[in-house]
């Protein structure tokens, strides 16, 4: 019990001392602020005590005029030159990508024609008795189709790389046709047997 009373007394003494110190510190700050001497320096220092609340602050220096207009004109010329350069780059990439897509379409068309011709020959085999000649032609058609399919895959890969380079060069996807490429060309492997 004695121990608890002793702790309570010590706690009350510490709280009283801290309150007295806080009061003394506040009184000291008010006294310093009241006795603050005005400095006679040429530079004006603004703080919360002397900041004007109903006046506007003026800015020292020349008003924005001819220099600002010249800077704006130079910036406009630079931005139009950059825009023209981006447009030229976008047109070049668009042309390259269009040529590559035309190449892919051509290869797709050739593969489609070869597969149709192969199907016609297979159908003709059932009505003709020369099966050995058909086997030779069928092997040749299949090897041609495989070679063209590899060329088609390489062309598609090259198109993807071109579109990625165009994207890195800052050309938008609408200009490169990246979103249209997903459906371009058919997968002709489904007709193989």
- Taking pLDDT < 50 over at least 5 consecutive residues as the criterion, the unreliable ranges are 180-193
> What are the secondary-structure elements, in order, as H or E?
HHHHH
Provide the helix percentage: over 70%
The rounded Rg comes to 43 Å
For the record, give the distance between the C-alpha atoms at the N and C termini, rounded to a whole number: 99 Å
Beta content comes to under 5%
What integer is the average pLDDT?
A: 75
- Count helical runs: 5
Structural class: mainly alpha
Shape: elongated
Major β-sheet profile: none
SS elements, strand count: 0
What is the gist of this entry?
The protein is built from 5 helices and no strands.
Q: Would you give an account of this structure?
A:
It is a single chain. The protein has 193 residues and is mainly α. Helix content is 73%, strand content 0%. α2 (66-127) packs antiparallel against α3. Residues 180-193 have low confidence and may be disordered.
């Amino acid at each position: 019990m004695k121990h608890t009373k002793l702790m309570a007394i010590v706690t009350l003494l510490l709280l009283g001392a801290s309150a007295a110190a806080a009061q003394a510190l506040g009184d000291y700050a008010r006294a310093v602020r009241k006795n603050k001497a005005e400095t006679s320096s040429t530079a004006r220092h603004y703080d919360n005590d002397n900041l004007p609340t109903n006046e506007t602050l003026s800015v020292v220096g020349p008003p924005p005029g001819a220099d600002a207009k010249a800077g704006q004109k130079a910036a406009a010329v630079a931005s139009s030159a950059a825009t023209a350069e981006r447009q030229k780059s976008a047109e070049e990439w668009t042309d390259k990508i269009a040529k590559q897509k035309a190449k892919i379409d051509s290869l797709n068309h050739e593969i489609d024609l070869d597969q149709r011709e192969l199907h016609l020959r297979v159908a003709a085999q059932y009505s003709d008795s020369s099966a050995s000649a058909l086997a030779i032609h069928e092997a040749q058609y299949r090897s041609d189709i495989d070679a063209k399919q590899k060329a088609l895959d390489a062309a598609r890969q090259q198109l993807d790389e071109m579109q990625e380079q165009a994207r890195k060069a800052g050309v938008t996807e609408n200009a490169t046709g990246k979103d249209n490429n997903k459906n371009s060309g058919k997968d002709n492997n489904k007709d193989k047997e």
